[in-house]
Specification:
287 residues; alpha+beta; seven-stranded mixed beta sheet; four-stranded mixed beta sheet; 8 helices; elongated
């Protein structure tokens, strides 16, 4: 995804390129952010809800010394504080507090729904409201570079180049905000690139321009095999499954979430999960 596009903009563009209305995305990226946005076309849209729940990886820049309305560079600055006295030790201690299983309050200017209304809509209308904290997992939060800079308003700020591996639903700009708050100088995100969604990495991604020239899509069987545990069934079981019979599932798939089922020819039949030892269909592709 290029910067300046909403995830919906990308979907709309892809509908034109693929000449179909059936296009969706797995996991929104903010307009400022760039990087991996997983799109599903036609049948593959059935995979998206399950893919959105996988782990994500980001590379970004956090500016310490300024808060913004949106917790990123898109919003106006609400406070400026000299951050030049912040040490690497203090940064590392702050990062450690935001690593692991944490409770995070999403940014107010976000797509979270509160009583059915998008949070950003409430914020734009000047409403005073609270968003409840949610559990998220930050499995890795690393600082690769720390450099002093001067902001446009003359404030002495510190820019951190960071990488984050986290669970679905984690806001990187909320991490920037909370790190800045912990250090007493404020913070916001100035750049963000998503480098991975589950098994799909930046090096295999295509730009919209490349797709306009040649529409290449990952075959649905390959996409599912990369993202979910694989269960190969024989022809008889494949037939029963596509006829709606709930098959007995091997114990090895217990608690593993969605499982991709393949027939002897390697075709993707369904996405199932084990429920009381049997396969419960989440999405059916074959038959």
């Amino acid at each position: 995804k290029p910067s300046g596009f909403t995830s919906h903009d990308v979907v709309a563009k892809m509908r034109g390129i693929a000449r179909t209305r059936r296009v969706g995305h797995a996991g929104t990226l903010d307009p400022m952010a760039t990087g991996v946005l997983v799109l599903g076309v036609e049948k593959a849209t059935k995979l998206l809800g399950h893919l959105a729940l996988t782990e994500k990886e980001y590379l970004g820049t956090i500016r310490l010394g300024q808060n913004t309305v949106t917790d990123d560079a898109e919003g106006e600055i609400t406070s400026s504080t000299d951050a030049s006295g912040i040490t690497r030790e203090a940064v590392d201690a702050g990062v450690a507090k935001l690593t692991g299983d944490i409770m995070q309050v999403p940014s107010k200017v976000s797509a979270i729904k509160i009583d059915g209304v998008r949070s950003y809509k409430r914020a734009r209308e000047g409403e005073d409201f609270d968003i409840p904290a949610r559990p998220v997992t930050v499995s890795s939060f690393l600082v690769h570079d720390m450099r002093e800079a001067e902001a446009e308003d003359g404030t002495r700020v510190i820019d951190l180049v960071v990488s984050v591996v986290c669970s679905s639903g984690t806001y990187i700009r909320a991490l920037a905000r909370d790190l800045g708050a912990d250090l007493g100088v404020g913070g916001h995100l100035t750049a963000l690139r998503r480098t991975r969604v589950g098994p799909y990495k930046l090096d295999s991604a295509k730009t919209l321009e490349q797709l306009e020239q040649e529409l290449t899509v990952m075959p649905i069987a390959e996409a599912a095999a990369a993202a979910f545990p694989r269960w190969d069934v024989d022809a008889r079981r494949a037939r029963l499954l596509t006829n709606g019979v709930r098959l007995e599932m091997p114990d090895e798939y217990a608690g593993s979430g969605p499982v991709a089922v393949f027939d002897p020819e390697g075709r993707l039949l369904a996405l199932v999960e084990q429920q009381k030892g049997k396969a419960k269909s989440l999405a059916v592709f074959g038959g």
